[in-house]
Design a protein that fits this description.
Layout (H helix, E strand, L loop, with lengths): L2 H29 L9 H34 L9 H30 L4 H29 L2
Length: 148
């Protein structure tokens, strides 16, 4: 398994862990004590806006730790050169990611037209964002293994 595959797998699994821990934290701290808060738009706005920097900082820390552990374990450094194959794999995975997120976005907006509760839209948006990130990372692993 090369460095790019390992980095993609670490990124995918860390996204799953970050979403799980953040969801558990929000549920225990806010929703478990007050179920009516799920219909509050201010709560969802704060939760969504707080999730973005939390996941960015957590991803940065996880990738730094991964680089250190990978260097110690395998004694290989991160490749500094990206060739056309890497760029093509990145573009294909971004395309997959965008399609998944756009589908989730339309589903979220569609949930507002159907008589669902407003929180369904926010959950769909958050879930589609993380699902698109995870799918992008797994697509990278697939394309590195299969070839472009």
């Amino acid at each position: 398994m090369n460095y790019h595959e390992k980095r993609s797998l670490v990124s995918a699994f860390s996204s799953i862990i970050i979403l799980g821990i953040y969801s558990l934290y929000i549920y225990q701290k806010y929703i478990a004590g007050n179920v009516e808060i799920v219909n509050n738009f201010k709560f969802w706005g704060k939760s969504f806006l707080f999730l973005i920097p939390v996941s960015i900082v957590a991803q940065i820390i996880i990738h730094i730790i991964f680089a250190i552990i990978n260097k110690i374990a395998t004694n290989e450094e991160e490749p500094n050169i990206t060739d056309e194959r890497d760029k093509l794999i990145e573009l294909k995975s971004i395309r997959i990611s965008h399609w998944i997120f756009i589908t989730g976005f339309f589903l979220a907006m569609g949930s507002l037209t159907i008589p669902f509760q407003p929180y369904v839209m926010f959950i769909t948006l958050i879930f589609s964002g993380f699902l698109s990130a995870i799918a992008s990372e797994f697509a990278k692993v697939y394309y590195y293994r299969k070839g472009v």
